Amino acid sequence: MNGICAIISGGEYSPLAEIEKADYIIACDKGWEYALEEQITPQLLIGDFDSCEETLPAHIPTIILPKEKDDTDTLAAVRIALERGFAEIWLYCALGGRADHFYANLQTAAWAAENNAAVKIFAADTMIYFINNRSLIIPYHSDYVLSVFTINDKASGVNIKGAQYELDDATLTNTFPLGISNEFIEENPVRISVRSGTLMIMCVKV
User: Fold this and answer.
1) Who's near 152: CB < 8 A, 6+ residues apart?
2) How far apart are CA 97 and CA 94, in angstroms?
3) Which of 49-58, 101-110, 133-142 has the lowest mean pLDDT?
């Protein structure tokens, strides 16, 4: 697997930072409006388009989904990214908006991580990373805090190195926030790893 697939979802708008680095861009439903605002041309449009007021273009491949379906538009896009073998999936405009869709997007990101993709959600003043049975290096971010949660009932073999508060072979559960509000130090990157389980790592500006 290789390359980056960026997916513009239909949640609350946030700037499409670094999206120019993506190898492939999918816009979901209202995400097409956000792409137009940023003058970005996706390679694929997908959704039921019940929230999109813009005309769908003839020159961009488009998948129209039924309104009654099991997958959200964003999950359908993630399935395509995985089927096409992308190693990284970046989600934009996936937070805010309806609370149920916000939570569904977190679950979608975790599911993609469990299917061997490294996942990152971009939002204003927030970045959320998802990893499963692997390690991640997060570069130093001034004025940000770092919180580590597990999506599973528990995650074992969790290590945090290079942060203010380190963990060594710890177990995290999804009912106790042990990993909340860690801090970067001395411009050092932070290395986070998990032996078994899926982690959601939030980097939030304070």
Assistant:
1) 174, 197, 198
2) 9
3) 49-58
Residue with tokens 């061997």: 116
Q: Which amino acid is it at 137? A: I
Distance of CA 145 to the CA centre of its chain: 18
Contact 163, 107 (CB under 8 A): no
Q: Are 28 and 73 in contact (CB under 8 A)?
A: yes
Rounded (10°) angle between helices 99-114 and 73-83: 10
* CA-based nearest residue to 32, from 24, 20, 42, 22: 42
Question: Residue 1: pLDDT above 80?
Answer: no
The answer to whether residue 131 scores a pLDDT higher than 70 is yes
Collapsing DSSP to helix, strand or coil, 159 comes out as: strand
C-beta of residue 32 within 8 angstroms of C-beta of residue 42: yes
The band of 160, judged by pLDDT with boundaries at 50, 70 and 90, is very high
Q: Token pair 């304070």 is at which residue?
A: 206
Residue 121 near residue 128, CB atoms below 8 Å: yes
